[in-house]
Amino acid sequence: VAGDATRLPFDDGVFDAVADDWVRADLEHLGFPTRLRRIFPVIKLASATGLVAGLARPRLGRLTASALIAFFVLALGFHTRAKDGPARHAPALGMLAWSVAARRAYDDVR
């Protein structure tokens, strides 16, 4: 379960660390400031670490999952501001749903 729980943010963080033209173009489209873009891999890789550590320290897992919820709510806001259609909102919405499920899973870990 721990591997599954961290796979998405870890893979996503690695993907963001290799900023290719597609990632740059997408962030430009969203109007995300260039000076802040380096933070994405850090946030996503730290979230994977927090989710794994949360198995031993559930409060950390809940905090990490809650931070991911906030992150993806903000992502949805950027897509809305960019006037993106449903297809462009879908990945952030899916990750938001996954983050909510992860948060709920930590409620069961004592």
What does this structure look like?
Helix 1 runs antiparallel to helix 3 (39-53), helix 3 runs antiparallel to helix 4 and helix 4 (58-81) packs antiparallel against helix 5 (86-107). It is globular, with a radius of gyration of 14 Å. 19% of the residues are buried. It is mostly helical and 110 residues long. The chain is built from five helices and no strands. It has helices spanning 2-17, 21-30, 39-53, 58-81, 86-107.
Order of helices and strands: HHHHH
Largest sheet: none
Distance between the termini: 16 Å
Helix content: over 70%
Provide key terms for this protein:
110 residues, mainly alpha, single chain, globular
Give a quick rundown of the structure.
The chain has five helices and no strands.
Question: How is the topology of this model organized?
Answer:
Elements: H1 2-17, H2 21-30, H3 39-53, H4 58-81, H5 86-107
Helix pairs in contact: 1-3, 3-4, 4-5
